[in-house]
């Protein structure tokens, strides 16, 4: 699980945790290249949608 926390959640590039920014919505690491991009926002909305679906439905 430590590997997961040191990868950019947008591009999945390995990151140095000490230099990594976090996306405050998902609390996941994001690299400088992806931070603030449309790709980042896309991934955030996709992940939050999945969470919301789980709460709304619960039938899976
Ligand atoms: Zn990235």
Task: Supply the key terms.
two-stranded antiparallel ribbon, alpha+beta, binds zinc ion, 10% strand, 60 residues
Q: Element order, helices and strands?
A: HEEH
Structural class label: alpha+beta
Overall pLDDT level: 84
Q: Describe the largest sheet.
A: 2 strands, antiparallel
Q: DSSP strand (E) fraction?
A: 5-15%
- Low-pLDDT sequence parts: none
Distance between the termini: 25 Å
Structural account:
The protein is α+β, with helices and mostly antiparallel strands and 60 residues long. The protein has one domain (2-55). It has two helices and two strands. The chain has helices at 2-5, 38-56, and strands at 21-23, 28-30. It has a two-stranded antiparallel sheet with strand order 1-2. The longest helix is centred in the last third of the chain and has 19 residues, at 38-56. 17% of the residues are buried. The mean pLDDT is 84. Bound molecules: zinc ion (ZN). Zinc ion binds next to loops.
Write a brief caption for the model.
It is built from 2 helices and 2 strands, in the order αββα. The protein is α+β, with helices and mostly antiparallel strands.
Write the layout of secondary structure elements.
Blueprint lengths: L1 H4 L15 E3 L4 E3 L7 H19 L4
Antiparallel strand pairs: 1-2
Bound molecules: zinc ion.
Zinc ion binds next to loops.
């Amino acid at each position: 699980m430590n590997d997961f926390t040191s990868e950019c959640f947008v591009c999945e590039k390995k990151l140095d945790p000490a230099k990594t920014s976090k996306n405050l919505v998902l609390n996941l690491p994001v690299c400088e290249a992806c931070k603030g991009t449309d790709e980042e926002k896309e991934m955030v909305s996709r992940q939050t949608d999945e969470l919301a679906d789980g709460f709304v439905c619960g039938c899976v």
